[in-house]
Design a protein that fits this description.
By secondary structure, this protein is mainly α. The chain has helices at residues 3-19, 22-31, 36-49, 60-73, 83-89, 94-101, 105-112, 123-132, 137-146, 159-164, 174-180, 185-193.
C-alpha cells in the first residue's frame, strides 16, 4: 500500500473517531487487510498520546489527592507576611496549630514571635513544619524570618520606660525552646530525633 493511501485511511479513521462512529472504524480495518498492521500501530500511538477518557468519574478522594499533589508540586504563593498571619489565614488558633504540630504552645508562640533561629532547624524539621501548613520549606523559612513579637502596651508605663524595655528579645535554638517547654517527653523526643 502506498503512503498516500495509508494517509487517507488514517484521516478517515480520525474522522470516524471524532464523529464517534465505531462501526466506520471497524469497517476501515476490515476492508483494508493489507494496511491493518500500519493502522493498528497508528491507532495505538493515537490512544497512547491522546487524552485519557475515563469511563467512570474519579472518586472525590482521588480528586482531593490529585489536587494535593499538584499543590505540592506547584506550591501556590503564600499571601502571608509572617507565621501568625499564615496561621490565622488558615483558620487556626495558636493552640490548634501547636497541637497539630505536636509542639507546646509556648514553642509555637516563639515561632510566631520570630524568636526561633531558622538555622537551628534541621531540614526534616523545617519540612515537617512547612508540610503542616501546606507550603514549601523555603516559604516557611521566609515567614519565620518575617515574624516579629507582638508589642503589648502597658498604659501605666511612661514613654521612657517603654523605650528602655524594647530591647530586642534573644533568639534561641529550636532544641533549646523544646527543652524549656512543658511538652510531653514523647513529643519532645520526636522533634529532637529529626
Amino acid at each position: 500500500m502506498k503512503q498516500h493511501e495509508l494517509q487517507q485511511l488514517k484521516m478517515a479513521w480520525l474522522a470516524a473517531e471524532e464523529a464517534g462512529d465505531r462501526q466506520a472504524q471497524m469497517t476501515l480495518l476490515r476492508d483494508h487487510p493489507d494496511a491493518q498492521d500500519a493502522l493498528i500501530d497508528f491507532i495505538a500511538a493515537y490512544r497512547a498520546s491522546g487524552p485519557f477518557e475515563a469511563e467512570v468519574a474519579p472518586l472525590p478522594l482521588t480528586q482531593r489527592a490529585f489536587a494535593t499533589a499538584l499543590n505540592r508540586v506547584f506550591a501556590p504563593p503564600v499571601a502571608a507576611a509572617n507565621l501568625r498571619e499564615l496561621r490565622t489565614r488558615q483558620g487556626l488558633s495558636m493552640v490548634q496549630a501547636a497541637r497539630g504540630l505536636r509542639l507546646g504552645v509556648d514553642v509555637w508562640k516563639k515561632f510566631e514571635d520570630g524568636l526561633i533561629d531558622l538555622l537551628s532547624l534541621s531540614e526534616r524539621q523545617l519540612e515537617r513544619l512547612a508540610r503542616y501548613f501546606h507550603i514549601s520549606a523555603e516559604q516557611f523559612g521566609q515567614l519565620l524570618l518575617g515574624s516579629q513579637p507582638t508589642q503589648a502596651l502597658n498604659r501605666r508605663q511612661t514613654v521612657q520606660s517603654a523605650r528602655s524595655q524594647q530591647s530586642a528579645p534573644q533568639k534561641q535554638s529550636f532544641a533549646e525552646a523544646i527543652a524549656r517547654s512543658a511538652m510531653s517527653n514523647e513529643d519532645r523526643e520526636e522533634w529532637l530525633e529529626e
